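Example for tutorial group B:
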């Protein structure tokens, strides 16, 4: 159960990042490579400040602001300097790598195991669980501490999901969707789509940086390379969730993405426990993405064409029978 709660907690925290990728990948149709950099940036901001005694809540807020600024810079590179959307993201990702190292005072990683963060705030400095003044040794309630981390993660993702769903139902949210679907139509309404794009990138990278901040606190450290593959992980979660649950019309896309992230993380866990090595992780990831993309390809829609052909054949046969009867 301890392992299950740990995987669920990690999946939920990563699903925040997947929701951020969803905004650029699905809604805006903007291939934003900034995700890998802003995820690490959010983690390094939090780890650096937490290690010096800052409040975890303040660190999370600063990470969100850092992510939003990263998204804004990526958007401005694309809009103002006319750099392609893909290249602008790659350039900013490289910049954020150096900035993240600067944030950690030139170090490649920072450990915050011994510092107070959002997931151990209910524990005192003696590593005991405090209930109404009664201290219980941590090793006696290890499952409960994992459960507590899961509950905190669940409450966070529910709050973020509700806020995102509410935003996408507002006029600004519909404008964001319209910009991704048909930019020319939105321009014809007199709306500045460049501003909408920058806003979308800011929201996306703010969520991604938030995910990095929470993951750093969950893992107990931040590393300058922890953001590598973030965009791929987010896209994989989106593909899995939207394809497995595509027939459930009442389920929102945000819910599908969260569940897709959970399924993806458990698939990786079971794959690595079948004898595969950690170095095979990227291979397993690619195979999982290929399988689900094939499932969603047009090749699986062939039966629909066959039905149309059968229908046409029946109509032609019926027409021939009528002509013969008339003759």
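The residue assignment follows.
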């Amino acid at each position: 159960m301890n392992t299950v709660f740990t995987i669920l907690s990690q999946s939920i925290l990563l699903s925040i990042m997947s929701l951020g990728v969803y905004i650029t990948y699905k809604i805006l149709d903007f291939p934003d490579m900034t995700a890998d950099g802003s995820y690490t940036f959010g983690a390094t901001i939090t780890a650096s400040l937490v290690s010096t005694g800052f409040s975890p809540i303040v660190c999370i807020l600063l990470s969100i602001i850092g992510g939003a600024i990263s998204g804004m810079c990526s958007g401005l590179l694309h809009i103002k300097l006319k750099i392609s959307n893909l290249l602008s993201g790659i350039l900013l990702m490289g910049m954020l790598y150096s900035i993240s190292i600067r944030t950690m005072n030139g170090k490649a990683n920072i450990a915050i195991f011994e510092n107070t963060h959002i997931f151990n705030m209910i524990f005192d400095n003696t590593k005991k669980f405090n209930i109404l003044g009664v201290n219980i040794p941590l090793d006696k309630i290890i499952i409960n501490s994992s459960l507590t981390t899961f509950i905190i993660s669940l409450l966070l993702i529910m709050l973020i999901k509700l806020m995102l769903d509410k935003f996408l139902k507002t006029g600004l949210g519909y404008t964001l969707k319209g910009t991704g679907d048909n930019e020319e139509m939105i321009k014809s309404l007199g709306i500045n789509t460049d501003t909408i794009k920058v806003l979308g990138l800011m929201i996306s990278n703010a969520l991604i940086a938030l995910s990095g901040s929470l993951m750093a606190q969950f893992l107990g450290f931040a590393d300058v390379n922890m953001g590598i593959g973030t965009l791929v992980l987010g896209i994989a979660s989106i593909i899995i969730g939207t394809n497995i649950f595509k027939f459930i019309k009442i389920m929102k896309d945000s819910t599908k993405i969260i569940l897709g992230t959970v399924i993806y993380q458990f698939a990786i866990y079971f794959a690595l426990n079948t004898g595969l090595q950690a170095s095979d992780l990227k291979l397993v990831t690619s195979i999982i993405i290929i399988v689900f993309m094939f499932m969603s390809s047009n090749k699986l829609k062939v039966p629909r064409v066959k039905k149309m052909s059968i229908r046409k054949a029946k109509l032609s046969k019926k027409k021939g029978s009528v002509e013969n009867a008339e003759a």
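Confidence is low (pLDDT under 50) at residues 124-133, 138-143, 298-308. Compare this with the pattern of hydrophobic and polar residues in the output above.
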